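Session log. Operator J.P. requested a structure for one protein chain; no other inputs attached. Running the standard single-chain path with C-alpha cell output.
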Amino acid sequence: MRINPENIRIEDYNYELADEKIAKYPLQERDKSQLLIYNKGELSKDSFFNIDKYIDSDTSLVFNNTKVIQARLEFFKETGAKIEIFCLEPIEPADYNLAFQETHKIKWKCIVGNSKKWKSGCLKKSVSVKGLDIEIKATRIVNDGNSNIIEFSWDNNTVSFSEILENSGLTPIPPYLNRDSEDIDKDRYQTVYSKQKGSVAAPTAGLHFTNNVLTRLQSKNISTQEVTLHVGAGTFKPVKSETIDEHEMHTEHFIINKQTVINLLNSKKIIAVGTTSVRTIESVYWLGVKLILNKQLDKHITQWEAYKLENGFTKQESLQAIIDYMEQNDIDQINASTQIMIFPGYNFKIIDALITNFHQPKSTLLLLIGAFIGDNWKEVYKYALDNSFRFLSYGDSSILIP
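Structure written below.
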C-alpha cells in the first residue's frame, strides 16, 4: 500500500453544515434517532431502534466500552478570574486505573483555560465528597504552551481522584455545541455499556444503543465484542493544513483482551460501532503484522506506519500471531497506543461495515468515512442533510455497508 498523503486535500472533504443542523441536545429517547442505511450504494432511512434488521446473524459488533470522565475542573482565583483545567491523561501514575484510585496526589496532562490569568501559585477549591469537605489544590508543574502538567493534591486520603472528579468535575461536551454542560449531559454523553474510565469525549456512535436494542441484537445471534480506546481531546483537532501530510494525528491508548481477539478471528463478519472502534481493531491488525515481521510486540502504531508496512498478511494470520504471543507470555490483554491516520486509499483489514454518526467538515473522522465508502460519502451526507438528519455528537446515526 503506497499512498502519498500529499495528494489528499482536506478541502475535498468539506461540506456546508449549517448551525441548525447540529444537534445541541440529545433526543429524549436514545434509540429513537434516525438511522441512515447505506447498503452497497443504496440509500434509505429508518429508526435506530430497528438497526437489527440491517445486520446479519452471526455478525460481531465491536463496541468501545470507554467511559467519559468529568474531566473539567473549575477554579476561581481571589480576583474572581475563572481558570478551567481540562484533564487529558494521567502522567504519574500513568496507568488509568491506578490514577483514578490515587488518594493523595496525582499529576495529569491538562489544557488550561484562561491560562494567562494563572501566572504563579496554586489554585484551591473546596468540594463535598461523601459528606466530607475536601480542599483540592492544583499546582502547575510544566507549561509548554500547548499542554500543561498539573499536580492535584487533596487533604483527605480516604477520597480517590475518581470520586473528586465525579463530585466536582464537569462533563467535557464538545466545543461545537456552544453551551455549558448541563445535568442531562452527565448521563446522556455516556454509552449504556461504558465501563472503563478514561475518555474526555464520548464514542458517540454508541450513544444510540439501549438495553432493548442490545437485547434484540442478541436474540438474532449477533454477538457484541468490547475493546477500550480512551478518546482524547485531539478527536476535535481540526485539520488546518491544505494536505494531510502536514497534519499531526493525536495518540490514543487502547486495550484489547485475548478472548476478544479470538472472537474476532472466528467472526464471519465484523461491524465496528464508531470510528474509535475502527481505529482500535485496525491498529490491532498492524500490531500483529509487526509481531510477524519483527518477532516482538511493538505496542505503538505511528501515524503513517500502516502505509509503509508489508500488508499482504490476512486477518487470520495477524490475529493468530497476537493470540500466540499472548499465550506464550501468559497475558490476557494488550495495552497499546495508536496514532493511525485512516484516509482514502487505506485498505481496511478487519471491518466489514461501520455504524457511525455524521462528522464535522474537514475532519480526520470524515477522511475515515471517505476511506471506507469512497466518494459516496458525498451522497450519504447530501441525503442526510436533505432528510433532516441531526449532525455530530448528539445527532443521528448511520450504518455503512460498502
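Operator note: The CA atoms of residues 79 and 92 lie 31 Å apart.
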